[in-house]
């Protein structure tokens, strides 16, 4: 990473730490406007076409066992590029995809129209999302650095763990080595165990895929 890029990333993170000084509701409102602005044009980060993103998606899926999984959650789905991969990789699962930007979700709906009967798109932020069910498999990629300072990160980590069904799998994907900081509350929680970690250092933007499992057996494995 170049010095200019490193400085830009540090300024980016500082901005979101400042936002987290607001109440959770105020922080969520500003993030919603921020991401709606970014999504004024389709695929603002080229997730659907960028070779790096495609390689990261493939590496993420490769770290997760085949299942079966009844319920899958993707937190921070943007326009549904990875969501589409999920519905195709797990044709028997119901997939819930969450994003704070309604503009992004409208495009995500088009992308996953092939599986509309088993896909639910929800406009919400990580800290306030509520669910009727617990999930066998939860993904959170490139999202935790947006929640800001430590207490919000701790809250977000507890939220993700709380969304897991017994035996459920949590997958966190974030830049490396920043992932050490972003995943630390999950690592220290004692509520889940880390079962694997893949670190890609050869990419122009290194990343880590950390996989955790909650104790117990999922409903899917119990009936399989």
UniProtKB/TrEMBL annotation:
The UniProt keywords, alphabetically, are: Methyltransferase, S-adenosyl-L-methionine, Transferase
Signal peptide annotation: none
> SUPFAM superfamilies given for it?
S-adenosyl-L-methionine-dependent methyltransferases
Instruction: Kindly give the Pfam families that the UniProt entry links to this protein.
Output: NodS
GO molecular function terms listed in the Swiss-Prot or TrEMBL record: S-adenosylmethionine-dependent methyltransferase activity
State the superkingdom.
Answer: Bacteria
GO biological process, any = methylation
PANTHER family, alphabetized: METHYLTRANSFERASE, UBIQUINONE BIOSYNTHESIS O-METHYLTRANSFERASE, MITOCHONDRIAL
Could you identify this protein by its name?
Methyltransferase domain-containing protein
Q: Which organism is it from?
A: Nonomuraea glycinis
